[in-house]
Write a structure and sequence with these properties.
Two copies of one chain form a homodimer. By secondary structure, the first copy, chain A, is an alpha/beta fold. In chain A, 40% of the residues lie in helices and 23% in strands. In chain A, strand 1, helix 1 and strand 2 form a beta-alpha-beta unit. In chain A, helix 1 runs parallel beside helix 12, helix 6 crosses helix 7 and helix 10 runs antiparallel to helix 11. The radius of gyration of chain A is 20 Å and the shape is globular. Chains A and B meet through strand 6, strand 7, helix 7, helix 8 and helix 9 of A and strand 6, strand 7, helix 7, helix 8 and helix 9 of B. Bound molecules: 3-isopropylmalic acid (2 copies). One 3-isopropylmalic acid (IPM) sits at the interface of chains B and A. Chains A, B: Belongs to the isocitrate and isopropylmalate dehydrogenases family. LeuB type 1 subfamily.
Amino acid sequence: MAKILILPGDGIGPEVMAEVRRIADTLAETHGLAFEFEEGNVGGAAIDAEGAPLAEETLQRALNADAVLLGAVGGPKWDSLPFDQKPERALLRLRKELGLFANLRPAIVFDPLADASSLKPELVRGLDLMIVRELTGGVYFGEPRGIEDIGGGQRRAVNTQVYTSEEIRRVAAVAFELARKRGNRVVSTEKANVMETGVLWREEVTALHAESYNDVSLEHMYADNCAMQLVRQPKQFDVIVTDNLFGDMLSDEAAMLTGSLGMLPSASLGAPDAQGRRKAMYEPVHGSAPDIAGQGVANPLATLLSFAMMLRYSFDHGDAADAVEGAVTRVLDRGLRTPDLVQPGTTKVSTREIGDEIRREI
Amino acid sequence: MAKILILPGDGIGPEVMAEVRRIADTLAETHGLAFEFEEGNVGGAAIDAEGAPLAEETLQRALNADAVLLGAVGGPKWDSLPFDQKPERALLRLRKELGLFANLRPAIVFDPLADASSLKPELVRGLDLMIVRELTGGVYFGEPRGIEDIGGGQRRAVNTQVYTSEEIRRVAAVAFELARKRGNRVVSTEKANVMETGVLWREEVTALHAESYNDVSLEHMYADNCAMQLVRQPKQFDVIVTDNLFGDMLSDEAAMLTGSLGMLPSASLGAPDAQGRRKAMYEPVHGSAPDIAGQGVANPLATLLSFAMMLRYSFDHGDAADAVEGAVTRVLDRGLRTPDLVQPGTTKVSTREIGDEIRREI
Ligand SMILES: CC(C)[C@H](C(=O)O)[C@@H](O)C(=O)O
Ligand SMILES: CC(C)[C@H](C(=O)O)[C@@H](O)C(=O)O
């Protein structure tokens, strides 16, 4: 039986995850899903319970699971901890140890929510773009790194951006494969006008494209221009592939364009093994929202849609994923909204209530 | 007599610069400005004329000038040149050799243009934020850098992000000083949750603030969150201070929020010398727009407003700067627009025509 490790984490993580578990129970009945669920601590919750943001035992369980579903990490309680003890360390460690090099971040505008965007509705209605962010390389993990004293009361800090041909090609391949199932267009983004890592990025993506994916349209765009174009005309994009740091910023910018962060899932995938199975972790794009935690008002839909991505990408349960996504659309169409999405003319519901309605729709 | 070096550059650079020169002549009469203007080549134009994007002699003249006014560089003609021969090299070299460590990029929405933004007008009307970007350090200039063969057909590219205490403090000081003359609020942006350079950045900004600027409000924000917040609620910001690479992306994103790139100036400043004079270069935020070059339809206002910034920051001619900015506002209020800004109900004018109207208003 497939094993799923659930890491609810901090803030609103536990309450949204509880809702997703209940919906998963419903799906087990309706769609015959059979999963073994385990739970573990991560982030601040793990610091409090186990003295570190990711216990060795939890990491082992993640390595042994068929997929990981994560809630959110972080909060003011742990903000003043030193760099290498913060809750976020757990995320970085999980990504690296599980080899999750491809981070898929869709930015989708659900039709009934188009008005929630800061952008004019005509610019975002129907938006459906996918950012593929490299997740285990670049400046996030490059050595040397650190802060040193250089005398005279001065310090000097260093980080290193490193990419190899292989790291670039494997994430670009994920982007091209995805594009083939979507709009068949990839925009590759870097700063090749300033950084050698960008030059290599562009050359390798271009070569891979010529070798294996020349049926897909490919465009190169500098990262600063991409940050502009996302605001100017987001619907020009289908798939964007970029490095770890640019991907961090561009995917958050793209997410905010939708106006409904509470709706956005993500998937982080590793390389396929001999059986074609990839290690994978799924999580909502939003954070732990400590200000509303414990009040039962958090929006569980991004975590639920992350679970749907898991069903689709890790377990080939497209039918069950469709059922979840369809139920979400219908519940929104009926005007039900958690407080983060409430607008005039809609009905405010709690975390539990929207969960119940989703189960009913499934 | 103060010396100004004019570098028109490529694409629309020469034609917008010609217009600004004519307006400067008018100001000489109305406001008694007395400047000595020199011209030089930069970017693609310099590659064609002198074999390199920035001739040594031009660099010397820039070093000897009291201020530099640059048009724009780049174009398809030079796009396939190798990394270190591209037109953009000239910009990077000028910044570094002149020591222009503080790049001031205002994102201002002119009231009659609020509808041009992708964002809902109520989110941008009255927007006036200033991004202070570090311009001579970080990953743009850090060593080691390069691409090496690592065998097996694989290559490895490296760039280095470096910051010292001093580099961080001097640009932060510029941001705090500017904030005092504006809304008195600074947001400092980095990725201290992932990068040691961000940790040092945050610590030095915090220390400088406590020592010398605790009358200014200071907030720290991760760069990915800043990319989001700019879309969500841009008017929350007064001054944003950030590093070279984050500043590149965030300032372009912020510029695009205004919807009228053709209106945005920038200033790049060095350290004050014994007489309190700073080396300085002024340039529009927009690029060389090769697609419309030579047609007489380019918008000269961003370059003109860059010249106004020069009058204010380099020559203490606030009165003449006010006159320029006032004339720009009145011309827009009268509904005159170059093609990039034309909307129903406005009147389309050429580069020359809008220049003439500005001169009349002055
Ligand atoms: C929390 C942080 C370390 C993380 C990152 O920078 O990758 C986050 O911003 C994200 O995008 O998942
Ligand atoms: C042209 C390029 C080198 C430059 C940069 O990245 O700094 C540009 O994008 C800018 O922001 O002035």
